[in-house]
Structure to design on (818 residues):
């Protein structure tokens, strides 16, 4: 029998987030920072643009110049500034992005010009500042550009490049060691005997770790033998920030994982009042030989149960470690297209597809919901969160759908 | 002057998708297939489970056995099948996932059992099939499990592992060569003179290529000189599926990129009736020395313009090349929190944050919308698609917001 009390789902999630630290900070090259969380404010060291830049192809002029025809004294391409100076009666041909020569205070677009014999006149009025980007128009010197906790997106990468911030401090990505246990588990590609199955969990979990922004580390398949498991625990906990085992946490008598988890760490919960995924364990490891806390998750052996537990309980923790402040997927209210019969004694997460139709979301469960049936999760874009209590849901009832295909917000 | 006609945005997008091929198919190891698009149906070669498996820890029995007490003749753990056979008056202790011994037709959970002296009796009725997962319960032999065009998610990886499909055919990811042009462009980290700026575009575009599932290839910064550009075009078009240049497509007199694009390929449009991003070029290259068609995109030099054009026009093409059938981000109707004044002569994409409040989406533009100001895009989660015509939008007006933080669906 599982010796732990049944912890309500919300309490389990709270316990995890409360005991999960942000990881330490590392400096990375700006172009490697995509998707990472900034650990400090980034201010502009210089204004952008750092010179008065032309916003158009045309002519740099003095706006109030009374001359009708002006002499073209040279050209200023985008690129290093030439020594040209604009004075009354004179103009410089200029391209988009080029530095506006001293003296000029506006740019007239080429389409409003008429040229004749090295001279030009304009068919439109011009005012000081026209088509001229002042110094610091985009970013003022010293301005806070990217505050701490920003998740760097492609535009953020561009801002760092523009500001010459070659390295930035970001939170480290969690390294996650993943282990499968059980005599019945065989590596894909190897021969199987009757009674054995191929390891799916380690691969689904490692893929989910990648999706969550973590770095997976495979510990392979370890048989339910104390020595082998002990070595794997040591390897995982010394090399990784998070240790995940799947299998070995049900009520079977050879459940050595639980013994080892208790030996290494402090168990905060050992089973969760959820379906699927009841036999889910969470423990923390604080040891003097480790610079920082490790987390242990014992996930169920059934593939769907382990993936749903990962999604709801492990993924938020991995994101918190990596510095994210948005930890939860968006939810929508959706109308059921069919009835659901259930016991209703645990919170339940049914796999579903939601679809926008006639101004509202409609939810359809992805077939048989047994916790071994990975097919119920492949291609699902939502988990229906069915609360404790409601035993029977009718077609048309409104349920909460967690959009597992969308980023946290 | 730009010699090309102004192509309406929708027509530009149609032209791109119509001329963009799916790439060829490659076989990858199943664990590398995350996010890839399947190029062929995957059927199950064998049923799953491939043996009758216990769904609980308990006792394997004959359901109709009249005996009150049954003799425990052995144990069957999850793992290879033992030679035990269950007959009347006898039972085998069994764990979750273990093969149910021949003879038995049900499993009684351990919590409904009482043991005494090597015998057990049950406190609950049992029917044939109880807690027993029949062969093929999850997947029947020969069943279509993952149809062609499926995007492989973590559950899909697990299904491939379970079915022992070590390699799968997927569409190749596009290799995208990215080039910046202009004498004013300097590599971040290098010294700049007045009039020069640091290259942001190549980094924002390469990051966006990664986000779109492509493989970026940097061609560096190439000055607006014919020889250097000619070499870069040759390198990009021989090594990559898509060639993207930014800058060099405005009306400036040194716009050599356009000349080279026309030399290599067939231009389908040369400017788009959109804001920002008007000077956007699309061309295809069909040459006998290439095994398949290459695409060329000439993007504007202004950072925001190039990113918005990438998002709306290049990203759908990259996804189509990689086999995706969902090419467009979701949109929502959102209520403006403020007025927008605009010319209204081109379709416009303003950068914004949308937020769910009081039962509806609210949209707020991210400050000054000049096309050089990357700050307007960093952290934005939407592009407001403002149609041609509406010159002035009032607070409370409803606009269409493209959710650029959410995957295509």
């Amino acid at each position: 029998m599982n010796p732990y009390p049944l912890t309500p789902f919300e309490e389990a999630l709270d316990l995890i987030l409360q005991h999960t630290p942000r990881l330490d900070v590392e400096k990375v090259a700006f172009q490697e920072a995509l998707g990472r969380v900034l650990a400090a404010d980034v201010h502009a060291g210089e204004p952008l643009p750092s010179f008065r830049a032309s916003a158009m192809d045309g002519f740099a002029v003095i706006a109030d110049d009374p001359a009708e025809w002006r002499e073209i004294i040279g050209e200023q391409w985008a690129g290093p500034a030439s020594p040209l100076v604009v004075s009354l009666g004179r103009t410089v041909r200029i391209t988009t992005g080029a530095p506006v020569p001293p003296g000029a205070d506006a740019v007239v677009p080429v389409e409003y010009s008429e040229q004749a014999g090295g001279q030009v006149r304009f068919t439109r009025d011009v005012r000081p500042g026209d088509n001229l980007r002042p110094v610091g128009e985009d970013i003022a010197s010293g301005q806070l550009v990217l505050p701490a906790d920003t998740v760097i997106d492609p535009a953020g990468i561009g801002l760092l490049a523009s500001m010459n911030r070659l390295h930035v401090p970001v939170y480290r990505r969690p390294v996650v060691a993943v282990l499968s246990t059980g005599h019945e588990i065989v590596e894909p590609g190897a021969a199987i005997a009757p009674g054995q199955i191929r390891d799916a969990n380690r691969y689904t979990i490692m893929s989910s770790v990648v999706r969550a922004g973590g770095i997976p580390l495979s510990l392979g398949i370890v048989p339910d033998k104390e020595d082998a498991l002990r070595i794997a625990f040591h390897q995982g906990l010394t090399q990784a920030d998070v240790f995940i085992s799947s299998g070995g946490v049900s009520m079977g008598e050879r459940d050595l994982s639980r013994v080892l988890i208790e030996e290494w760490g402090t168990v905060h919960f050992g089973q969760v009042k959820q379906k699927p995924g009841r036999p889910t364990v969470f423990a923390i490891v604080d040891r003097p030989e480790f610079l920082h806390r490790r987390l242990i998750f014992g996930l169920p052996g059934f593939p769907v149960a382990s993936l749903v537990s990962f999604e709801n309980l492990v993924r938020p923790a991995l994101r918190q470690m990596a510095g994210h402040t948005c930890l939860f997927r968006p939810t929508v209210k959706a109308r059921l297209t069919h009835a659901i019969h259930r016991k209703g004694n645990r919170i339940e997460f049914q796999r579903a597809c939601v679809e926008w139709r006639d101004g509202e979301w409609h939810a359809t469960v992805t077939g048989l919901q047994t916790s071994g049936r990975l097919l119920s999760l492949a291609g699902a874009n939502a988990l229906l969160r069915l609360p404790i209590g409601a035993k029977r849901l009718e077609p048309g009832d409104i349920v909460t759908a967690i959009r597992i295909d969308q980023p946290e917000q």
